[in-house]
Write a structure and sequence with these properties.
Layout (H helix, E strand, L loop, with lengths): L1 H46 L4 H13 L30 E3 L4 E3 L1 H13 L3 H5 L7 H14 L13 H15 L9 H5 L4 E3 L2 E3 L5 H7 L5 E3 L4 E3 L1 H11 L10 H13 L9 E3 L1
Parallel strand pairs: 5-7
Antiparallel strand pairs: 1-2, 3-4, 5-6
Length: about 280
């Protein structure tokens, strides 16, 4: 008789535990959904009046204004689709350029045009810290150019051998674990539904995630009141992995850009976006 009572009590305990577990799981799910909804509302509120628009306007003025030792504008700059063509150029970068015989992203290509057309020293600008001097203007120009491709689908070219090589380099870099924390890009950006505090971590291996991540930069960061280019975003990711800062426009950052951009094929560009 005691064994039967013990058996029934045990079953009752297990049933209660299962019910409690189910309730807790449902509560956590509701809380997660509520948190995600709250974050979405927060971002929607911030999006109304994106300060990046001010940088777009500044970039438009810089594009057409005679500047530099040659007192020339950037209107003859070729970003890959022909002289002065801006619409759709951003969603096909990085790409290979015959004149430099290099795969270049938007920022490094802008430096090439600033040097060849306007007479600026591209190396000097590349060595200037972010947020200082001409680096501010490069970010504004990037914001302006990217705005001309908002809503367009990413279609990075892969016809040239160098473009394909850079994709493979970027893929290897994405999964390379190193540094004191043994981190890789994939540590944070290879799964759906990840988040750090209020910051979503897009899955950069998927079309949607790559378009939402790579396709959002340049972006205005509310937390520090600065306009960040993709180069600066990549530097900050590497900083968090405790890697040394790469040289501005390095093959490392451009290869990672090619990898993410190709993964984003068919996804829509949203740059210049607004970030936490």
């Amino acid at each position: 008789m005691k064994s039967i009572v013990f058996f029934l009590e045990k079953c009752h305990f297990l049933k209660g535990w299962l019910v409690l577990t189910a309730v807790l799981s449902a509560t956590c799910l509701v809380q997660a959904q509520s948190t995600a909804d709250a974050i979405a509302q927060y971002r929607a509120m911030l999006q109304d009046g994106n300060p990046a628009d001010l940088f777009v306007d500044k970039g438009e003025l810089l594009w057409s204004a005679p500047r530099g030792p040659k007192n020339a504008s950037l209107q003859a700059c070729d970003l890959g689709l022909g002289t002065g063509v801006l619409e759709g150029a951003w969603v096909q970068l990085p790409r290979y350029f015959k004149d430099t015989q290099r795969v270049q992203d938007l920022e490094s290509r802008l430096l090439t045009c600033m040097q060849t057309l306007q007479g600026f020293d591209a190396n000097a600008i590349a060595q200037t810290p972010f947020g200082v001097g001409e680096q501010i203007n490069v970010s504004a120009l990037a914001a302006f150019v990217s705005s001309k491709s908002q809503g367009r689908e990413f279609q990075l070219p892969q016809a040239h051998p160098e473009e394909r090589r850079f994709y493979e380099i970027g893929k290897r870099l994405f999964f390379t674990r190193a540094g004191p924390y043994d981190f890789s890009c994939s540590t944070c950006h290879s799964q759906d539904g990840k988040r750090i505090r209020l910051q979503d971590l897009p899955n950069l291996m998927s079309k949607e995630g790559a378009a939402a991540g790579f396709g959002a930069w340049p972006a205005y960061r509310v937390s520090n009141g600065q306009m960040w280019s993709m180069q600066q975003r990549m530097n900050d990711c590497l900083r968090q992995q405790r890697f040394p800062y790469p040289v501005f426009g390095s093959e490392v950052t451009i290869a990672l850009g090619v990898y993410m951009g190709v993964n984003a094929k068919g996804g829509q560009a949203i740059a210049p976006a607004l970030k936490r």
